[in-house]
């Protein structure tokens, strides 16, 4: 997993621990379940069919992340981020910090290990052992 620091570290649910989660764990599924307790959809269900940051509208990870980052005050990039597996390279090419250190509010990027065109999500919580991210779907 690569992380793009497009948002500030305090933008999402500070103080939530992700202890116990594994790379294959699903802590919630569906908009209703993932809108309760420490989980958030960031209001995306009401905005699914609007395009953000030139992403395809709908129930997809890139549009969800673009929407969520926009709600945190991150401005629309002046460049195309492309498909999920292209986000890290595109961001780095434009001076955005890209590394392997998950920070709450950053964009988590999974490349080929997710299949297809990769996957992105929002880092919701992180500790030394695990990361909890949100996204509308995964492959």
- Averaged pLDDT: 78
Intertermini distance: 15 Å
| Order of the strands making up the biggest sheet | 2-1-3-4-5
The share of residues in helices is: 10-25%
User: Strand portion, in percent?
Assistant: 15-25%
Structure description:
The longest helix is centred in the middle third of the chain and has 11 residues, at 61-71. The chain has helices at 61-71, 87-93; strands at 2-4, 98-99, 107-110, 119-126, 131-134. Strands 2-1-3-4-5 form a five-stranded antiparallel beta sheet. The chain is globular. The relative contact order is 0.28. It has two helices and five strands. Helix content is 13%, strand content 15%. By secondary structure, the protein is an alpha+beta fold. The model is unreliable at 7-23 (pLDDT under 50).
């Amino acid at each position: 997993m690569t992380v793009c620091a497009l948002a500030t570290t305090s933008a999402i649910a500070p103080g939530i621990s992700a202890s116990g989660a594994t790379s294959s764990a699903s802590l919630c599924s569906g908009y209703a379940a993932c809108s309760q307790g420490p989980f958030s959809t960031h209001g995306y269900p009401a905005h699914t069919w609007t395009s953000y940051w030139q992403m395809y509208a709908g129930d997809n990870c890139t549009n969800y992340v673009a929407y969520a980052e926009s709600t945190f005050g991150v401005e629309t990039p002046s460049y195309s981020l492309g498909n999920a597996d292209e986000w890290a390279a595109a961001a780095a090419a434009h001076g955005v910090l890209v590394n392997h250190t998950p920070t709450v509010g950053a964009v988590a990027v999974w490349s080929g290990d997710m299949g297809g065109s990769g996957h992105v999500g929002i880092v919701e919580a992180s500790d030394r052992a695990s990361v909890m991210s949100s996204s509308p779907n995964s492959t």
